[in-house]
Design brief:
With 411 residues, the chain is an alpha/beta fold. It is 36% helix and 17% strand. The termini are far apart.
């Protein structure tokens, strides 16, 4: 009798869980819920801090200057310009003595002068992931790290997309792409930084923005940047959702894996598809000297490193008019085993096109816990990697490429 009751209770519990899950997925099919779930733009932890006062986030006085950038469709983006530390030290007295300049008068600041008037200055335009603001989580540490390879000349421009932080508007795929294009146009037209001294760096959702922006500018008239660096990228949103779990814990469509028709049915409601794979292939085909770098942590439990593997193949395949098999790629690509540091693969084509993939073994502290599937996972492999030396090294190599690739293959 007791066993019969417990089985019945288990049945109804599972049925209730299934009903809740279907209700959850059905809600996500609506435009409003989908937008908030994908971009999480209303979430942040900056309640007691002021983005207009970057010193509250550990920066030196006037090392970071807030600014506004207006998009063609009338949205006002909030952004930070981060002066690299060696450049700051060289101009410390004048920067400290400068009165606070509002975001609308940024071009009058000494920080702007240090960027626009130095013929050697380089600019990283940083596109962050979903949720939060320019100051969320590890992002402020990432800005400090990005310029560490050449701290006398690598500046950082970090933007909040529309609907994020202090920026106006509501996020969408086309909207975020417009924001990215506007930031680049500002860098070239207002700051007068030529594209060969600009690198696009994206993390997570930001990789899709960076890829779309680079692909936009490679069309007529062609604009080639110093490099594009994608950290924890994904091939496209429908494919990602088949395996994605929020913080490695809450699955989206993976529970429907035994029911592919249902997966396809719910995927069909997705409005913003972010097809990075196709955009990367288009970028590589159209470019004459693409410099693309994919970096991913093997302990990333939000977006699997297999996505960067797929993007590497898509990019390399686009260098051939006839297409390449995986076997052909394996025979030609350069590979180095970095042991505990992971592995590095390089694809060179047409003498000028360079595509690299660095799979890092460890992307952050390993905080032990279990997800709903009973799998042991860690928490921070997805975000903390942005602060790691492998990113700073890649950015420095984008602006100052090594004289010659080492011809190695440890397979």
């Amino acid at each position: 009798m007791t066993r019969g009751i417990s089985l019945k209770q288990a049945y109804w519990f599972l049925a209730a869980c299934g009903a809740l899950y279907i209700a959850f997925i059905s809600i996500l099919c609506t435009s409003w819920a989908q937008k908030h779930a994908l971009y999480v733009h209303k979430f942040h932890t900056m309640w007691w801090q002021d983005l207009a006062k970057p010193e509250q986030f550990g920066f030196l006085k006037n090392q970071v200057q807030p600014l506004h950038i207006t998009t063609p469709d009338g949205e006002v983006l909030f952004a930070w310009h981060v002066v690299p530390i060696a450049k700051y030290i060289a101009n410390e007295e004048s920067l400290i003595g400068e009165q606070n300049i509002s975001a609308t008068r940024f071009t009058e600041s000494r920080g702007f002068d240090s960027l626009s008037r130095d013929p050697k200055s380089c600019l990283v335009i940083n596109f962050h992931g979903n949720a939060g603001t320019v100051a969320q989580g590890w992002r402020t540490d990432a800005y400090r790290s990005l310029s560490s390879g050449a701290s006398d000349k690598i500046h950082v421009l970090a933007i909040d997309y529309r609907g994020f932080g202090l920026s106006t508007g509501t996020p969408s795929e086309q909207g975020l792409i417009t924001d990215g294009i506007t930031a680049v146009q500002w860098a070239m037209d207002v700051a007068k930084i030529p594209p060969e001294r600009i690198a696009l760096v994206g993390q997570s959702l930001g990789t899709a923005v960076a890829a779309a922006v680079a692909e936009h500018f490679i069309r007529v008239p062609k604009v080639e940047f110093a490099g594009v660096v994608l950290i924890a990228a994904f091939s496209d949103m429908p494919t990602l959702l088949l395996t994605y779990a929020v913080k490695g814990l809450i699955p989206i469509l993976s529970p429907l894996r035994p029911y592919p028709r249902l997966q396809r049915f719910f995927s069909g409601f997705l409005r913003d598809t972010w097809d990075t794979s196709s955009r990367i292939a288009s970028l590589v085909r159209r470019s004459q000297k693409v410099n693309l770098h994919l970096i991913h942590s093997k302990d990333d439990f939000e977006i699997s490193w297999k996505h960067s593997e797929a993007l590497f193949y898509a990019a390399a395949n686009a260098t051939s008019t006839l297409g390449l098999t995986i076997k052909q790629m394996e025979a030609v690509k350069l590979r180095q085993d970095l042991h505990e540091g992971g592995s590095l693969e390089i694809w060179n084509a047409d003498g000028m096109k360079r595509i690299t993939k660095h799979i890092v073994r460890y992307g952050g502290e390993f905080n032990t816990r279990y997800n709903f599937n009973g799998l042991l996972i860690g928490e921070t492999g997805h975000n903390r990697i942005t602060t790691y030396p492998c990113i700073a090294r890649t950015v420095q190599h984008v602006f100052e490429p090594p004289d010659q690739d080492k011809q190695w293959d440890d397979r």
